[in-house]
Amino acid sequence: MSENGLRNTLKVQRAMRDLTQADLASLAGVTRKSVNAIETGNMVPSVVLALRIANALGVTIETIFTLEHGEIEK
Amino acid sequence: MTTNQTDRILRLTRRNLFIVLIGVLLICGTLLSNVFRPDAAFSRWPSTMPWLLPLATIIIFVATSMGRGRLNPKSAELQAVLGDEWRQVNLTRAMRIAFFVVLIAQVPQAFLFLQLPVLRAVMGMAVATITVAMTTLITLFLIFDRDQSHE
User: Fold this and answer.
1) Does residue B74 belong to any structural domain of this protein?
2) DSSP one-letter code for A59
3) Which of A21, A51, B72, B77 could, after both became Cys, cross-link A35 (CB 3.0–4.6 A)?
4) Rounded to a whole number, what is the distance in Å from the CA of A10 to chain B's nearest CA?
5) Which of B80, B89, B149 sits opposite A29 (nearest CB)?
6) Distance from CA of A52 to the nearest CA of B (A)
7) How far out from the chain centre does Cα A13 lie?
């Protein structure tokens, strides 16, 4: 379970599209460090950034980001 | 938007911050040296070499604004770096910790400047506080913002 209660499938989604962190960062208009921080669970993105990443990957936000079970029960 | 360009801007901003850190340490170190030992050679370099700081400022400005170091303020890459959320998070973390470090540092600083005359002690406290704040903030930001990526 991640510290911030947010689970993400960003790495999987990225790999499915054969995109590097740098490619995704470029598409979403952020730096590679941000993409890496989100993937590793070190950062919770803002709604705007999450939407931009989802748009860049062509999926809905829920496909990438979901709450941990403990967080849903709260 | 090219990622190479974004990475280059990130490297440039880190390098520039490192230069600022050295500048802060040099200037604040001189001022502190002036407070404690006004006769020391290190305290007197601004009066013996008054051209050094303006010259260094011009050289740094030319180096960062000409040729390959030049940045277009409206470019998508620079906007991405400036508005980057990870950098904002790191800056906030560094600011929060630096604030507490400055607060805690007031006690040892007060003891350090206790034996000095009031005016020099006040100046020393002010310079020491600025030094601690700036060095802590910049150093922590550089540490938090270092590259940790592994694809």
Assistant:
1) yes
2) S
3) A21
4) 12
5) B80
6) 13
7) 9
Whether the CB-CB separation of B113 and B124 falls below 8 Å is answered with yes
Per-residue pLDDT tens digits for B66-103: 766 677 778 888 888 888 899 999 999 999 999 999 99
Q: Could you give all domains of chain A from N- to C-terminal order, each with its CATH number?
A: 6-65 (1.10.260.40)
Number of domains in chain B: 1
Instruction: Assess if residue B32 is contained within a domain.
Output: yes
ipTM: 0.81
Q: In the predicted model, is pLDDT for residue B133 greater than 90? A: yes
Structural domain boundaries, residue B21: 3-144
Nearest CA-CA partner of A27 in A59, A63, A62, A57: A57
- Is A43's CB within 8 Å of B1's CB? no
SS3 B90: helix
Q: Is B20 helix (H, G, I), strand (E, B) or coil?
A: helix
A17 and chain B: CB distance < 8 Å anywhere?
Answer: no
- Predicted TM-score (pTM) of the model is 0.82
Nearest-CB residue to A45 (from B81, B85, B145): B85
In chain B, DSSP finds a helix count (H) and a strand count (E) of 6, 0
Write out the two tokens for A49.
């950034």
Q: Is B143 exposed, middle or buried (0-12, 13-18, 19+ CB in 10 A)?
A: exposed
Mutual angle of helices B52-65 and B41-48, in 10-degree steps: 70
Whether B150 maps to a domain, the answer reads no
Q: What values do phi and psi take at A7, rounded to 5?
A: -105, 140
- Does the beta carbon of A67 lie under 8 angstroms from any beta carbon of chain B? no
Looking at the complex, does the CB of residue A45 fall below 8 Å from at least one CB of chain B?
yes
